[in-house]
Design a protein that fits this description.
Elements: H1 2-11, H2 24-30, H3 34-53, H4 58-72, H5 76-88, H6 94-102, H7 108-127, H8 130-154, H9 175-193, H10 196-219, H11 224-245
Helix pairs in contact: 1-2, 3-4, 3-8, 4-7, 5-6, 5-7, 5-11, 7-11, 8-9, 8-10, 8-11, 9-10, 10-11
Amino acid sequence: MTPFITALRFLTVLPVPGKTSITAQSVARSIPYYPAVGIIIGIIMALICVGADAVFPPLVTSVLLVLVLSVISGGLHLDGLADTSDGLFSARPRNEALSIMKDSSTGVMGVIALVLVLLLKIAALTSLSDAVRWEAAFLIPVAGRCSLVYMLYALPYARSSSSGLGSMFFGRTSTPTVASAALIFTVCALVTTGLPGIALLIIAGLSCFLFTLYIKQRLGGGTGDTTGALAEIVETVTALALAALLV
């Protein structure tokens, strides 16, 4: 269970008993469990959604869901989105963009990206009926965590230094692990939504592939920040796709 605990401890703030050290070996062994962590978050989100819908109007429920999703991951992916946006939209060369992304402060583009992503998720969830909102609440975190596996597989580490935490994640994922993540999301999407799940797979998969390709062309590889940005983008695209499909 150690690899799963490592994944759960790294991707969430959920209380996990025991101590798990973060090493290159433990990271490599934990990556296949990222989709499982997404499923756990999804179940928590779905249960909260059902309970909140019984008490609150759709807008309040949607805000609560987005809040829970942000808090349960410790803001890890949102921080990556903000840093990545600051770097990518700085119109600076690759090395300067990477330096900007490493800066802990958040610039204008980072703030804009955060606001847009949060608002789009809330709007998409609010637009769904109570009968299907729980489906979106479940699938959004699953899509985000499955997408992490693909970027870690497809890209090398972008920075020349191997001292960063992100250097332990890239280049340590196998093809079967990526295929397993894709299969897990496929099963979750089809079982939860039925035929609309096919369209969802195409849309979410395409957004994951295109953003990863863009990062490769712009930065030459990935970082911890870009994986967080990918998770947020895929989650948002999934929410918007479900708002269009589950009508």
